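[09:14] KT: can someone run the structure on this one? pasting the chain below
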Amino acid sequence: MTLLYLIAGSAASILFITALHHWLGRSDSPRLPDTATAMRQFADLMPDEKATGATLSADGGSALLDLDMRDRLGLLLPMGQFWVARRLHPADIAGWAIRDSVLTLRLADFTTPAFRLAFADAATAAQWRQRLDSFKP
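[09:31] RB: done, structure tokens below
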């Protein structure tokens, strides 16, 4: 009987902590309001890289960045309440496709195997298609 009380108490505690976490607003993913914020966040995480431009996803949840060198791209993704910045070389990209202004990028490692980035319009998608076509290993 004591085991039953222990399991029920643990389950109730977990539910309470989860509800409190959500009620306090800690379950929301961070958003990028503009390209300047994306470039600043990337510079904070990777101070040795200089971003010359950024393109936000339609929902502001991620960003692709043009870096100073033509053979590298920057990637900014949310992880919980924080941001993860990646420097992408041509060898890091296993494949990509753009369909209906949505970029699907497959990476060559297991830490971020694939992700999707929905562009705001078709012109931005075409610009990144041209950029990724020139981004060959």
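[09:33] KT: thanks! The chain has two domains: 1-29, 35-133.
[09:34] RB: yep, looked fine to me
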